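Reminder: ligand-aware prediction takes two inputs, not one.
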Amino acid sequence: TIPQHLFGKTVVITAGPTVEAIDPVRYLSNHSSGKMGFALAQACVEAGAQVTLIAGGKVALPTPLGVTRIDVLSAAQMLTTAQQCVAGTHPALLSLTENEQIDDHKHHHVHNHHEHERAECDCHEPDDQIEQQSVASGDITSNGNLDTLPLDNLRHADIFIATAAVADYRTQEAAPQKIKKTQDAMTLNLVKNPDILATISHAYPDMFVVGFAAETQDVEHYARGKLAAKDLDLIACNDVSRSDIGFASDDNAMQVFFSERYAHDTVTLEKASKDKIAEQLATIIGKTLTQ
Ligand code: C5P
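Here is what comes back for the chain with cytidine-5'-monophosphate:
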């Protein structure tokens, strides 16, 4: 078995791209597959953590066993959902807590995608509707063994990990109707998205916060800049100038830089499967957190 470096820790992870609506049928997004974040979610569960995975865009990956998954689309939704998950107030976590207290309904913990959306989750709904619950921020999927849940809702998460490829810009306003091709040229007004990682990191100075970065040059310089600007504990960097790793690839290679508050040398993780890299990162996070 894997060393339990994250035993009893609660972890919130963002993964995948965000999707920014242009009109009801079109959107802006990117090629992030979500693989690294999903692999990390699985590795954290295996290392003993309770994991909430916020998947942006339309990530087409199975939910790792034991992970509570919440699907969102846009950066704005991802930020709201991440804030609620870190605070432990997201309806998905509250209702899982409630379910946990109903012993003979433990089998209800295996959810699948729900079709309907509701304005808010009524956590006092009758038992037979537990499998139907869904919330406005997105679909909730809990997969498999949830005996290690629930979270202690009075306490914020121990670790926040941002692997999501958040769109830098969104449309100022999504058109309510499909835009017709009547003009020869058209302009989209874009506005900057919030920085989810920086917002959460600054709101919870004592939480362990992990960022990712993809750089093509001056990797260390940019990594250290982001460590400081976003007040991170550590940052894992891909070298995206390499064509054999990253994005949709199953492999990755990373350099890990630590905040100056840890006297840690930079760690290089050699090219390996994303699962293997994720395991190593989970171990590094656990050891740094508890040192
Ligand atoms: O600034 P840059 O996009 O390179 O930062 C990368 C890190 O910040 C990643 O961990 C990414 O998930 C996070 N991020 C975020 N929200 C944004 C932009 C980046 O959480 N709007």
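The mean pLDDT is 83. The first strand starts at residue 10 and ends at 15. We will return to this case in the review session.
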